[in-house]
Amino acid sequence: MNDISPVIKLALERRLITENQLEQCKEILRKSKKIGFDATLEEVIVKQEFLLEEQIEELRHISQLATGGGTHFGPYRLDRLIGEGGMGKVYEATHEFMGRSVAIKVINQQYTSDKTNALRFFQEIRALIKLDHPNVVTIYDAGRVLRNYFYAMELLPGPSLKDYVDSRKMLSEREALSIIRSIAKALGHAHANNLVHRDVKPENIIFDRNRVPKLTDFGVAMHHDKHHLTLTKEGVMVGSLHYTPPEQVDGTRDIDCRADIYSLGATLFYALTGRTVCSGNSPQELLTKHLSGLMPSPRKFNPRVSKRTVKLIKKMMAVNRDKRFQTIDAVIAAINRPSLANRMRLIVTVTLGAVIFLLLGILLQRLTLLVP
Predict the structure, then answer these.
(1) Percent of the chain scored above 70 by pLDDT?
(2) pLDDT band for position 81 (50/70/90)?
(3) How far out from the chain centre does Cα 110 lie?
(4) Omega cis (within 30) before 159
């Protein structure tokens, strides 16, 4: 075991390959070197189709991060890599003492070497600590192992709202509104705690094991309180191109809850149609379309969407933010407000009930008069 790499050790420990398969690959490697063929043991294992290249890469990530070339990262055992981006990587892990399964976000050392990036990471942690809501991902722990900053959060099996919509092509109006209502409540809680998310999109809404949608990724959240620094540079856009409100395009710092309302409206559009509001061949084209305010009707792609919901999206996504809903509570109230058809049905039902009750009263009165 001492003559093999940490990657192969992990593969054996996790029973991804057997000792017999390993010995076969070692023998092939020895023969290959005799004829001048230069390769690694990992390459031979892949060539023999005992493991995929992706599995080797995942094991390499874990062995590089874990202490002692094993699988332990502080009090956690790293199980698998579940995602990565510019900031860092996310692993499924288990707390050894508590037995709790978590997702660990580990930040790239190159990222945190920049002071502003490090502060942004710390503010993301503090944002999540401030929030306690059933539709916001829960943070459990944070700290540093060796030179790697991390935080541990609730493990969400998924899918994301984007993956869920993509698998279904589009959602029914009732289901889409239910999901958006839940995320609106999460945003309301964030806004009440002086936080603007600034990156609401289907990818950042993930379902837990009970199919409850949760808002994640507060990495670019803006804090509206005196205890936090403003880290966004003037003129630098944050957020995602397909869901960015016009006022975020030029990187203005004057951002409030109405920015999240716009992005949530664009997310609702995606849930109902399986398409983004704007499409284009370049970032400039996309941004121009957002600024124009000429959005297509969701009924063009999903004729079953009610006119009421079309109006809801249009008001959420007004280019002029003064014409949008001014609070997330107003959005929730609009979603909860019965449609005209439902109100008419209620009126008809109540009226019919009253008429029937009146007729029964008259009938009983006449029957009483007929009885001697």
Answers:
(1) 84
(2) confident
(3) 24
(4) yes
Give the active site residue among 163, 166, 199, 225.
199
Residues 6 or more apart whose Cβ sits within 8 Å of residue 58: 80, 81
Strand locations in 294-369 (E) = none
Res. 149: pLDDT tops 90: no
Q: Is 193 exposed, middle or buried (0-12, 13-18, 19+ CB in 10 A)?
A: middle
For residue 258, count CB atoms less than 10 angstroms from its CB and return exposed for 0-12, middle for 13-18, buried for 19 or more.
buried
Report the pLDDT value the prediction gives residue 124, as an integer from 0 to 100: 75
Q: What is the DSSP string of 153-187?
A: EE-----BHHHHHHHHSS--HHHHHHHHHHHHHHH
Domain 71-155: state its class.
alpha beta
Which tokens sit at 370? 């007929």
Q: Using CA atoms of 96, 93, 53, 85 in order, give the dihedral in degrees to the nearest 10.
A: -150
Residues across the chain: 372
Sequence-separated (6 or more) residues with CB below 8 Å from residue 87: 105, 107, 108, 111, 117, 121, 219
User: Predicted confidence band at 329 (pLDDT cuts at 50, 70, 90)?
Assistant: very high
CATH annotation of 161-337: 1.10.510.10
Nearest in space to 89 (alpha carbons), one of 63, 124, 62: 62
Domain ranges of the chain: 1-68, 71-155, 161-337, 340-372
Q: Between vectors from CA 11 to CA 7 and to CA 14, what angle results, nearest 5°?
A: 135
At residue 1, the pLDDT reads 47
The confidence score (pLDDT) of residue 165 equals 97
Strand partners, 215: 136, 205
Question: Dihedral, CA atoms, 285, 286, 287, 293, nearest 10 degrees?
Answer: 110
Is 199 one of the annotated active-site residues of the chain? Answer: yes
